[in-house]
Design a protein that fits this description.
By secondary structure, the chain is of the alpha/beta class. It folds into three domains: about 45 residues, no CATH class; about 130 residues, 3-Layer(aba) Sandwich (Rossmann fold); about 140 residues, Rossmann fold (3-Layer(aba) Sandwich). Helix content is about 45%, strand content about 15%. Helix 7 links the parallel strand 3 and strand 4. Helix 2 runs parallel beside helix 7. The longest helix is centred in the C-terminal third of the chain and has 17 residues. The relative contact order is 0.13. GO terms for molecular function: DNA binding. This is LacI family DNA-binding transcriptional regulator. InterPro entries: Cro/C1-type_HTH (IPR001387), HTH_LacI (IPR000843), LacI/GalR-like_sensor (IPR046335), Lambda_DNA-bd_dom_sf (IPR010982), Peripla_BP_I (IPR028082). Keywords: DNA-binding, Transcription, Transcription regulation.
């Protein structure tokens, strides 16, 4: 019978340390102390451990291929992020391959399981809404293929991450509504469990608290990111006895859905109920009235994410970095009361 090859997981089990620590020790990275590294190297030599180059993807930058895993490619935000990634990748001699999850955790898992990482030097990942793929991401990193997260990140994984400033963007959005005279502000939020959903929710709440306005829990609605979800959320709010006079939406698509609901019910946007979104999707300036929003730096997020990934690929000693980029308030007619 053919003897099974020793793997990184075997070394980790014997030494009672994590797989990622063994992987970093074998690559002599900055964050593993010399004593641990020596134990790993000695055991690897003793057991005749041989790196699995098919698994590690020749992670020294030999393929010049990068993978991008993301929920969608059809909306403005992600297409703009991809444009930023492309500019850096192509100028640095890398090709890119897109893997689209359709915001499905099961599809995300299937993609990660089927990835031929021997053909990739690194991955840029925006996790699905209900992702619990931490173990898969960690296994890929342990096999020597670096990952950088953007937009929707996995907090528990120690690698570089690039995000917009969700908390302060939300805070600024709600303060703008308050400055315009709105005092009963609802929030149509994204799915629970996502880091940026929670940060935007926290920014919304803190702005209310700062301005001595109550937090009304029934005015906080969690649902998907689509225009249809925004319309349904607004329909529900309009059926309540205690109606809000303004809406902060987690993104522009939900805000536009809410505007469609208000038009359907003959409610004047701005005068009767103000609306503010988050993204600065091109539709926000085309729809009537124009949608006030927080513009996200999508292009810059794409560029910076790719720059960090290439540093992880090409530098032996590179500390993981977390970058948070500010948004910008764009004022249009949807928050004008007169």
């Amino acid at each position: 019978m053919k003897r099974r090859n020793i793997t990184i997981k075997d070394l980790a089990r014997i030494l009672n340390i994590s797989v990622s620590t063994v992987s970093r020790a074998l690559r002599d990275t900055y964050d593993v102390n010399q004593e641990t590294r020596q134990k790993v190297v000695n055991l690897a030599n003793e057991l005749n451990y041989k790196p699995n180059f098919n698994a590690t993807g020749l992670a020294k930058g030999s393929t010049h291929n990068l993978g991008i895993v993301l929920p969608f490619i059809t909306n403005y935000y992600f297409s703009t992020v991809i444009t930023g990634i492309q500019e850096v990748a192509y100028n640095s001699g890398y090709n890119i391959t897109l893997y689209v999850t359709n915001d499905s955790h099961q599809r995300e898992l299937q993609i990660l399981e089927d990835l031929t990482i021997s053909n990739l030097d690194g991955l840029l990942i925006c996790a699905s809404s209900d992702s619990n793929s931490s173990e898969y991401f960690e296994n890929i990193i342990s096999d020597g293929v670096p990952i950088v997260f953007f937009d929707r990140v996995i907090d528990t994984i120690d690698t570089s991450k690039v995000m917009q400033d969700d908390y302060n963007g939300a805070f600024e959005a709600v303060e703008h509504l308050i400055e315009r005279g709105y005092t009963k502000i609802a929030h149509i939020a994204g799915p629970k469990g996502l880091t940026f959903t929670e940060k935007r929710l926290n920014g919304y709440k803190e702005a209310l608290i700062k301005n001595n306005l109550p937090i009304t829990e029934e005015w906080i609605i969690h649902s998907e990111f689509s225009q249809e979800s925004g319309e349904k959320d607004m329909d529900w709010l309009l059926q309540q006895n205690n109606m809000p006079d303004a809406i902060f939406a987690v993104n522009d698509r939900k805000a536009i859905g809410a505007m469609q609901s208000l038009k359907k019910h003959k409610i004047i946007i701005g005068k009767d109920i103000g609306i503010i979104g988050f993204t600065n999707d091109p539709m926000s300036s085309i729809i009537t009235p124009g949608l006030t929003t927080i513009a996200e730096p999508a292009y810059e997020i794409g560029k910076l994410s790719c720059e960090l990934l290439i540093k992880h690929i090409t530098k032996t000693y590179f500390h993981a970095e977390e970058k948070i980029l500010p948004g910008k308030l764009i004022i249009r007619e949807s928050t004008i009361r007169s």
